[in-house]
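User: Fold this; tokens only.

Assistant: Input:
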Amino acid sequence: MLEKIIIGIIALAVGILAGYLLRKSIAESKIQSAEAEAQKIIETATKNTEAIKKEAILEAKDEAHKIRTEAEKEAKEQRSELQKTEKRLVQKEESLERKSEALERKEEHLQKNEQEIETIKNDINELYHKQLAELEGLANMTSDEARELLLGRVEEEIKHETAMMIKEIEASAKEQADKRAREIISLAIQRCAADHVAETTVSVVALPNDEMKGRIIGREGRNIRTLETLTGIDLIIDDTPEAVILSGFDPIRREVARVALEKLIIDGRIHPARIEEMVEKAQKEIEIKIREEGEQATFDTGVHGLHPELIKLLGRLKYRTSYGQNVLKHAVEVAHLAGMMAAELGVDVQLAKRAGLLHDLGKAVDHEVEGPHVTIGAELAKRYRESKDVVNAIEAHHGDVEPLTIEAVLVAAADAVSAARPGARRETLESYLKRLTKLEEIANEFEGVEKSFAIQAGREIRIIVKPDKIDDAASVKMSRDIVKRIEKELEYPGQIKVVVVRETRAVDYAK
């Protein structure tokens, strides 16, 4: 048994040794194969590296050759350009030398001419003084006296010629300008028709019966006092049948009072609390109506992009009148007229319309803000980011400042046309008589005026001059001077025609 174990152990040892030798032999063969393969790879890589190196060297040589060729070409071109530039400089230098020589010759010639002129000047001075002495001896008059006499005569002649020239130029200019202006304005007036509403400072509210007057007054007058306090409007309840009169200078407050009173009459419940509620509702309604009127005005004129506050101010003009003319309708009409005239002249139609619509903007708040409506309107336009041209048109539409654009002139013309329509505005008798008296006073202040007559409701003034003191040329100048005085001192709608009449008569009797 032991022998078998020993034999087994020996056999196992022999097997292990044989396996080890076999694995060692296989590993050595693989290592040799790997070394051979590695040697082949190294040789192949060495060959490839040599080939790549040769190719890189060749490419570098080619690139260097190209660069050298291009550099030589550029250098050649630069040398050629330099040669051309040098040639041009040489030619310019030669030309400058020739010009310099010519200038020197001219300078020498000018010096000679100056010497000759100086000699001639001295001779003329001597001759002048000699002749002046002879003339003074012959005329028994010094040179200063002769100069004064001559200047006086020349001045009279120049005045006469100037007056005649002014007359001719004015006649020609007026003929052309009036013709064109009449065409443009008449076309604009024909194409634009507007309603004219004459309003006063009172509104009348109709009542269903006379018993309603007592309810409006209330116990001990508490209802009427409440309504007057809340609206700021006076209620006049007199013997007028079935009517109450609202009186106040603020048209918006008067409209609020009218709407509130009509609502109270319809509702039938008239007491202080209800009056306060109705007045508040009426104020909200009027605010909405004001905004709608402003939006409607911008829609009617095609003016867009206005600030919301400007639209509200336009709506307030609905309740503002000037000489009985509704200011909002007047503004819309001016916008249309200015736009039409701008289209005829080929200038900015939208600018003319925008400025025409906003030109009386200041009248919306002129009872709240101090200053003329022109200044207030210009400030409002600046505040709400209107353009400089629109602001200038607002400032210039009454001639307070110089118009800077044609559109500003058109707005002023359209404003005058709208105000001068028959029936558009009305004046009080007192202001009308004052204007006529002032017209005649201005004319009578001029020297040589015999009589003056304001006719055609102040649209024309005729001045009779003394023919022995005023000639035809002076009468032309007088008419211009009177026009300037009227424009400076008077305010009037439309225009005033000034006619200077000079008449001479020769009367004799046959006996």
